[in-house]
Every structure is written in structure tokens, then in C-alpha cells.
Design brief:
With about 230 residues, this protein is α/β, with parallel strands linked by helices. Helices cover about 30% and strands about 30% of the residues. It is built from six helices and eleven strands. The strands form two sheets. Strands 1, 2, 3, 4, 5 and 6 form a six-stranded mixed beta sheet that branches. About 0% of the residues have low confidence.
Length: about 230
């Protein structure tokens, strides 16, 4: 019997691809997604994606979505307490594994594994150690589509915010940028791919600078007549 698994869902490409990989596994059964939400803005922390878009993604991949509200600002202690409550809830629901789309940051993995100690649940990393350029190429060739919702202007020009992640965009990035943005260079929102039953029809609106980052607002296109990504 496959292990009941909940997947950390950031709304971006890595968590979406982790879902795709896990669904091909005979060991894990993804039964739900969970996302931490900034309670002050009702958006995904860092990705700045609207909750309504998260819900649309969950419907498109056919899974229940569990939202974890965290305060803004949020201390390490507050975050740990909120997550501990959620992990306890997952255990009560019979969850055996928590999966994450992390790629190679050892400190992040270690933190997650420490949080799972003593819970009876295992931390799973289906993408761990994959070379990021080859991984991104595999994602894009599979039909995954994503736009950049947040960029760190210290390493990536602000005009990248809101653009679709394509091979051409990747080649235009400055030297030293991780192809998957694993070091926080950028964050994405996935609107189509092999893990989706249907694409999301989205448009990019206002681009703003806040807290040292540049964010592009993503929304469902109103009165949609097609299913193509566009800026508004």
C-alpha cells in the first residue's frame, strides 16, 4: 500500500514537478497539498500569489488544499508553533509522509527533517540532488508553464518579474543565477503542465517593489476567451 503523503505546495514549478514525480511513484500517494499563507496579505509568502489562484491550482490538479496562516511579520518561534500544530493535524489524519520540492539546500532539508522528528511521519524530497539546468529543461519540455511572480533585484533585473519562464528567458539571465532559482533569485507560479487536468488562464497585472523584492501580481483573466498567458 502506498504511503499517504501531503505535499508542500508553494504554487511554483518545483512543488508542481514534485507532484508529477510522486504521482509516478509506487511508494507514495499524494492525498493533499499544504501552503503557508501570509495572513496580512492573503497571499503565499515570497511568491505573493493570491489564495484564489492557489485554490484554482488545487482544483486543476485534483487535490484538497490545506492553508496555514502565518502572521506578518512572523518570528521563527511563531512559525515553528503554527507548523507544529499543522503537523499534528496531519498525523491525526493518517498522513505518513510530508513531501517537499527542495533541490539542494542542505540547511533547508535539515530544518524540515528536524521538524518531522518524533512525529511518526517521514520527510520526502523527490527532486533532491537533481542537476537544476537539466531538471528545468525536463520541466519545460514536458509542457510545464510558469511565470515569475517574485525576483530578487540584487541578482536579477526587476524587468524579469511577470515574464514566462522559457528557455530563452533562462538564457537571458545573468551568469550565476541558478536555473531553478533555488537560491531565492526568483519564484514562480505554475499555470499549466502534465500535473494539471486543465490550464489556468492568467494575466499579469501590477508590478511592485516591496521589502527588497519585486513582485508581479498574477490573476485569473476575467471573461476569458482563450487559454493563453498574457500581460495586462
Amino acid at each position: 500500500m502506498r504511503k499517504k503523503t501531503w505535499l508542500s505546495w508553494s504554487s511554483g514549478k518545483d512543488s508542481a514537478w514534485a507532484l508529477h514525480v510522486l504521482r509516478q511513484s509506487e511508494e507514495y500517494e499524494v492525498a493533499g497539498l499544504f501552503t503557508t499563507i501570509n495572513s496580512a496579505f492573503d497571499r503565499v509568502a515570497m511568491h505573493a500569489v493570491r489564495v484564489e489562484l492557489l485554490r484554482e491550482q488545487a482544483q486543476a490538479v485534483g487535490l484538497p488544499l490545506y492553508l496555514i496562516a502565518i502572521p506578518y511579520p512572523c518570528s521563527d518561534e511563531q512559525y515553528a508553533a503554527v507548523m507544529a500544530d499543522f503537523v499534528a493535524r496531519a498525523g491525526d489524519d493518517g498522513v505518513q509522509c510530508m513531501a517537499f520540492g527542495d533541490l539542494y539546500l542542505e540547511d533547508v532539508r535539515r530544518y524540515r527533517e528536524e521538524r518531522m522528528q518524533g512525529t511518526g511521519m517521514a520527510a520526502v524530497f523527490p527532486l533532491w540532488g537533481r542537476p537544476t539546468r537539466a531538471l528545468l529543461q525536463e520541466m519545460l519540455e514536458s509542457g510545464l508553464r510558469a511565470c515569475l511572480t517574485c525576483v530578487d533585484p540584487r541578482v536579477l533585473p526587476a524587468e524579469f518579474a511577470g515574464r514566462e519562464l522559457t528557455p530563452a528567458l533562462l538564457e537571458s539571465m545573468p551568469a550565476g543565477i541558478d536555473p531553478c532559482g533555488e537560491n531565492g533569485e526568483f519564484h514562480t507560479f505554475v499555470f499549466d503542465g502534465p500535473m494539471f487536468m486543465r490550464p489556468l488562464d492568467i494575466e499579469i497585472g501590477e508590478v511592485v517593489a516591496r521589502d527588497g523584492f519585486v513582485f508581479a501580481d498574477c490573476a485569473l483573466r476575467q471573461a476569458a476567451t482563450s487559454q493563453s498567458f498574457r500581460r495586462r
